[in-house]
Design a protein that fits this description.
mainly alpha; 13 helices
């Protein structure tokens, strides 16, 4: 891609900048002001362009990086490239999209899951836990579910927010998907009380694991 194409895309993103959107996003730690529906429309028009995606990522701009994650080829990235990208992705939305839209579809996902979960950086470790939650739900073979519950029980209550938010869904998924561990998962949630008081809108399920597990199991039983 010619450099001018990157410049044109950056100009388009700048034109979509909305101060009100930025104000809302900044409350969540995301430093961009582009409406995500409009961002997705740009991505749909550009279609898949791996080289352009890499150049947009290199700008360091949050909106450009989100767009890059929508137009890239997830399987084209090397393991170490994704590791560097994750450590660069310090805003929550870029971090989440990188893990969910790219890493989960990459052949190095399992290797990165193991490495990231053990990382001393809690933000990096949170990516490992997000990938672990995916495996608990979709491909649990080979996972030590009891061992995961041991770690959650010992570490989740005092974990930094981002890491705590990534461990909690893993606890819930173990309880939801694996009946033999359900009572233990609920018990851990009840003892730790993580997110017990989290404000939950009407018609939404609480992220407090015992409530979350019980509600999802109830729904499954009604199908």
């Amino acid at each position: 891609m010619a450099e001018s194409t990157v410049a044109e895309v950056m100009d388009e993103l700048a034109a979509l900048e909305d101060p009100k959107v930025r104000a809302v996003n900044e409350k969540h730690g995301d430093d961009h002001g582009v409406n995500l529906t409009k961002l997705r429309a740009v991505a749909k028009r550009l279609k898949t362009q791996q080289e352009l995606a890499q150049q947009l990522w290199a700008t360091g701009d949050t909106a450009a990086r989100l767009l890059a994650l929508l137009i890239c080829r997830p399987k084209a990235f090397e393991r170490d490239e994704l590791d560097v990208m994750l450590r660069e992705a310090r805003t929550p939305k870029v971090h989440d999209w990188l893990v969910n839209y790219v890493v989960k579809k990459n052949p190095h996902a399992e290797d990165l899951r193991v490495a990231w979960t053990a990382d001393s950086d809690p933000v990096v470790a949170s990516a490992g836990w997000a990938l672990t939650t995916e495996r608990v739900a979709k491909k649990p073979e080979g996972l030590d579910l009891s061992g995961l519950l041991d770690v959650i029980e010992a570490e989740m209550k005092d974990a930094p927010d981002r890491l705590q938010w990534a461990m909690n869904p893993c606890l819930a998924q173990i309880g939801i998907e694996h009946a033999e561990y359900r009572a233990r998962a609920i018990g851990i949630g009840e003892r730790l009380r993580v997110l017990e008081d989290y404000p939950t809108p009407p018609n939404c399920t609480s992220p407090f694991a015992p409530i979350w597990i019980s509600e999802m199991v109830r729904r499954q039983s009604e199908k």
